[in-house]
Specification:
8 helices; alpha/beta; elongated; five-stranded mixed sheet; 2 domains
């Protein structure tokens, strides 16, 4: 007796591909660094799409943003939101310093993603956050990155203070009635006459609002070519530069990691 065998159609097993994204960042705005960011984006786009087991999610890139404060990085936070939404399995990044320079932020983020089953891979250091020794290596290396950031900040402050000691201003701020010639402020006669009028009115007991109306009747415009408001008039009256002095370091950054500034009440020169 003949037997009839039924041949079942076998559905081939297709392994699910990992959803992969990359994070890139440069900390300062410049044409050269913009090209650097573009190069990072192109590199990771090609790398992910060439990998057969990976599904390309995208490259998240912050331009001209410091790595010390995670809340200031829009693309970084968008990436984290997509991770929490289950859109990403693996995050690639160039190095620890590109991902974060703040030890607390980095470890909290990596641990949170690890709990979600998401791997963060640091290319330069060859670290995968999902491995057993990954977190230990991250803790050590990000501490170095944070201290490097602090060292850079201290060097910048040192250079700024040395310029101050030589009477060289830090930047080219606009002051009504003056113009810049090299590193020196030079009186601009037409604007200086308006400044004198403002001070004369103040000494005569006139309000800033009264002076505002007078300047409007005279057709005088502010530095930006707008109406000379009473707020601008009060700022001129309170600006020490009009006494012939430049006062530097009126505020200072307390800590380069937090980035918070504070008024100088004598803590610094």
């Amino acid at each position: 007796m003949r037997k009839i065998s039924k041949i079942e159609n076998k559905i081939p097993h297709i392994p699910s591909r990992k959803k992969v994204a990359a994070y890139a960042r440069v900390s300062m705005e410049s044409e050269r660094l913009h090209h650097s960011l573009s190069a990072q984006i192109s590199y990771y786009s090609d790398l992910i799409q060439k990998h057969r087991d990976w599904e390309y999610v995208g490259v998240y890139a912050d331009n001209g943003i410091s790595g010390t404060r995670a809340e200031d990085r829009a693309e970084f936070n968008r990436m984290l939101a997509d991770c929490e939404a289950g859109k990403i399995d693996i995050v690639l990044t160039k190095s620890i310093s590109r991902f974060a320079r703040n030890t607390v932020d980095l470890l909290e983020t990596v641990r949170h993603l690890k709990e979600l089953g998401i791997s963060v891979r640091f290319e330069k250091e060859r670290i995968d956050s999902m491995t057993e020794d990954g977190e230990l290596m991250l803790t050590l290396l990000v501490s170095f990155a944070q201290e490097e950031s602090r060292s850079i900040s201290d060097n910048v402050k040192w250079g700024t203070r040395k310029r101050f000691e030589q009477g060289i201003p830090n930047g080219r701020f606009n002051i009504y009635g003056y113009r810049w010639e090299g590193d020196h402020l030079v009186i601009e006669p037409e604007g200086a006459a308006i400044v004198r009028l403002i001070f004369d009115d103040f000494l005569a007991g006139l309000s800033a609002e009264t002076t505002e109306k007078k300047l409007a009747e005279m057709g005088v415009k502010s530095y930006k070519g707008q109406r000379f408001g009473n707020t601008s008039i009060r700022q001129i009256l309170g600006n020490i530069t009009y006494t012939g002095n430049l006062l530097f370091q009126k505020e200072y950054v307390v800590d380069p990691i937090s980035g918070k500034s504070k008024k100088n009440y004598g803590e610094l020169p």
